[in-house]
Amino acid sequence: MILFFGRTDDAPLTRAIGAARDAGLRHLVIDQARTARYDLVVGTDALDARLTVEGTRVPLGEVSAVYARPLEPPDDADPAARARAAAFQEWFVGWLDTAPAVVVNRPRAMGSNASKPYQAQLIGRCGFAVPETLVSDDPEEILAFRARHGRIVYKSVSAIRSVVTEFTAADENRLALVRGLPTQFQAYVPGQDVRVHVVGTDTYAAAVDSDAIDYRYPGRDGRSVRLAPYDLPPETARRCVELAAALGLPLAGVDLRRTPDGSWVCFEVNPMPAYSYYEAHTGLPIASALVAHLAGRGAAVPVGV
């Protein structure tokens, strides 16, 4: 039995559910919008641990794999329902860290992205180059960093998504606002973005063609973005797989940039990637690969694009 946990309006989850349905795999969907109606029983007796969803009772011992994308649940006007849903999610997500099953991804493994500077150190240990980085709330230190590197960008140091933005004269004029708010600054790296999704030991790469500083938000700069499947060099693919494994992530979104001299720089690793965006624009079979991994068939899915 494969469990899917998350919101049914979340494209990565729904694509994976569809792939499991198409493959004829036995599965159960745990919809975050309805968890107040579900039951989860755990205890010292593993034989009695069970999950009840829409009248379907599943012993947790029969769960072979879980794909979880725990997002904020929809608001519920009933305080009791909100409390019950919160308790269910807390217990279920906690169980994922110890479940004797394939879990994509275990919550404890997703913590490295909570601090981007910390994760960058882990990335460097795995053999990837990372951008020159400064985390500071000192305007003079930041200006010296820019003088040293010329073009620089800035973004959040935490797991909270932020727009990668180039530092400009306008930012210099308001730099005093950064005091007390440590911000991550990086040397600008020229080249082409390549997003690599690691699924088990397989990689699915997409080249990104865009002039935007942050291609995820091209409209902010009046830019466009185009995606296409990319033939990743074997050595780079191997490093991506090893990096994801070192972070404990069966599914990972690795953000790379290939510089004009042919070297590779890694910016970060997303432990809960929204792969559906890349799949929709390239045809890369990421959802099918994910479901194959959950079913224990990691090498069975070709890159049919």
Automatic annotation (TrEMBL):
Coiled coil region boundaries: none
Record GO biological process: SOS response
Keyword Transcription part of the UniProt annotation: no
A single GO cellular-component term on record: cytoplasm
Entry superkingdom: Bacteria
Domain ATP-grasp, first and last residues per copy: 120-295
InterPro entries: ATP-grasp (IPR011761), ATP-grasp_RimK-type (IPR013651)
Alphabetical keyword list: ATP-binding, Nucleotide-binding
Any GO molecular function: ATP binding
Protein name as annotated: ATP-grasp domain-containing protein
Organism: Streptomyces venezuelae (strain ATCC 10712 / CBS 650.69 / DSM 40230 / JCM 4526 / NBRC 13096 / PD 04745)
